[in-house]
Write a structure and sequence with these properties.
- By secondary structure, the chain is of the alpha/beta class.
- It has three domains: about 140 residues, 3-Layer(aba) Sandwich (Rossmann fold), CATH 3.40.50.720; about 90 residues, no CATH class; about 60 residues, no CATH class.
- It is about 30% helix and about 20% strand.
- The strands form four sheets. A seven-stranded mixed sheet has the order 7-6-12-13-14-11-15.
- A hairpin with a 6-residue loop joins β3 and β4.
- α1 runs parallel beside α12.
- The structure holds dihydroflavine-adenine dinucleotide (FDA).
- Dihydroflavine-adenine dinucleotide binds next to α1, α11 and α12.
- GO terms for molecular function: UDP-galactopyranose mutase activity.
């Protein structure tokens, strides 16, 4: 076996950042394995063969950050376009801007409220359940933004995301619902935002483009027929593991719950289906949560004017064999996670990272930021040990 100085399980942004730092900063030979047949994890995108449009294979990925270090780091591998994300939502056949802002409020109430008037109106409507401690997500939503806006824009959308009536969901799922009392409908508030100019895959491949980094695709860490499997390397060589933490320990403390999404792709004979990249559907009678039209992520590109591609997104609970996307984080999940964390602390020569390895939703900049700090601190300790 050609033993690397460091084995990384998973070629998502967490694993790629560790690999790049280990090769360049620590001078190590690194092998990255991934069970998929491409690198990049969930940020991977590919060219749609029919239209040439770049499609985000695992769902819409928008890069945004206020972390200066992360921004400077990612700019070493790609430049970014000036794309600014904006989302709209269809409710009862009318399109509104999201997140809820003064434009949404005035359109919904057919009014011309000033910011102060709108604030007073929402405060009055949110007072409906004043004094009562919200027992479920439904009551929490009403107490945050009032019943009319909650029922139009949040209730059914959230119900579809969770396949559960919000009255049966814990209030703790939401701590706040953003309402802006200006007409600003930029989705993200971060200092930096954009999309990789040459696409995600070019960016991700550049991170692994180093003579000391080897990438082995279609290689599962738990497949004992491949040489760098868990049982062979455990305690023998340093490993950074970014797969699911419960899988690493053979689900010995139980499984952690995830939601997943299904994307239904359709090609259409029009140059523009919806005029924007993401349209949410707020009503219960539309089974999908949103439609993504990827051509709008890159208005600067020369895409065909007579064809487009769309992805309808459906949300559901993940079953075994599904891609785990969003941690459910129920009380039981949190208890189970604590047990796995204790086991991970005692695992010789293995560090757990990334969204699957830590059972946390991480935006891309958070995954990169946390990998950079692991490379600064824990990785050096691991290599010494
Ligand atoms: P990631 O999941 O990317 O990588 C883990 C890798 O490990 C995978 O490639 C997997 O195949 C591999 N692996 C698992 N088990 C293995 C095994 N046994 N053997 C070998 N390999 C194994 N972020 C953002 O900033 N803006 C956005 O708009 C979005 N949008 C978004 C949409 C959707 C639907 C999701 C699910 C996520 C986002 N994200 C996002 C989050 C983004 O995808 C996330 O930050 C990165 O994927 C994190 O990278 P990781 O490396 O942690 O995980």
């Amino acid at each position: 076996m050609a033993t690397p100085d460091l084995l990384i399980v998973g070629s998502g942004l967490f694993g790629l950042t560790i690999a790049e730092r280990a090769a360049n900063e620590h001078g190590l030979s690194v092998t990255i394995i991934d069970r998929r047949d491409h690198l990049g994890g969930n940020a991977y995108s590919e060219r749609d063969p029919e239209t040439g449009i770049e499609v985000h294979k695992y769902g819409a990925h928008l890069f945004h950050t206020s972390n200066q270090r992360v921004w400077e780091y990612v700019n070493r591998f790609t430049s970014f376009t000036g794309y600014q994300h904006k989302v709209y939502t269809t409710h009862r056949g009318v399109v509104y801007p999201m997140p809820i802002n003064l434009g949404t409020i005035n359109q919904f109430f057919q009014a011309a409220h000033t910011p102060d008037e709108a604030r007073a109106l929402i405060a009055e409507q949110a007072g409906e359940l004043a004094g009562a401690d919200p027992e479920n997500l439904n009551d929490k939503g009403i107490s945050l933004i009032g019943r009319p806006l909650y029922e139009a824009f949040i209730k059914h959308y959230t119900g579809k995301q969770w396949q559960t009536d919000p009255k049966d969901l814990p209030a703790s799922i939401i701590s706040r619902l953003p309402v802006r009392y200006t007409y600003d409908n930029r989705y993200f508030n971060d200092t930096y935002e954009g999309l990789p100019t040459d696409g995600y895959t070019a960016w991700l491949e550049r991170m692994a483009d180093h003579p000391r980094i080897e990438v082995r695709l279609s290689t599962d860490f738990f497949d004992t027929t491949q040489e760098l499997n868990r049982d062979a390397v455990r305690g023998q060589i340093p490993v950074v593991y970014t797969g699911p933490v419960d899988r690493y320990f053979d689900y010995s403390e139980g499984t952690l719950g995830w939601r997943t999404i299904d994307l239904e792709t359709e090609h259409l004979s029009t140059g523009d289906f919806q005029g924007t990249s993401v349209m949410n559907y707020a009503d219960a009678d539309v089974p999908y949560t949103r439609i993504i039209e990827p051509r709008h992520f890159h208005p600067e590109r020369d895409y065909p004017t007579d064809r487009t591609v769309i992805q309808r997104e459906y949300s559901r609970f993940a079953e075994s064999g599904d891609e785990p996307y969003y941690p459910i984080n129920s009380g039981k999940d949190r208890e189970t996670l604590l047990k796995y964390r204790a086991k991970a602390e005692n695992e010789p020569r293995t560090l757990f990272g990334g969204r699957l390895g830590t059972y946390q939703y991480l935006d891309m900049h958070m995954a990169i930021g946390s990998a950079l700090s692991m490379a600064d601190n824990k990785l050096a300790d691991l290599l010494r040990g």
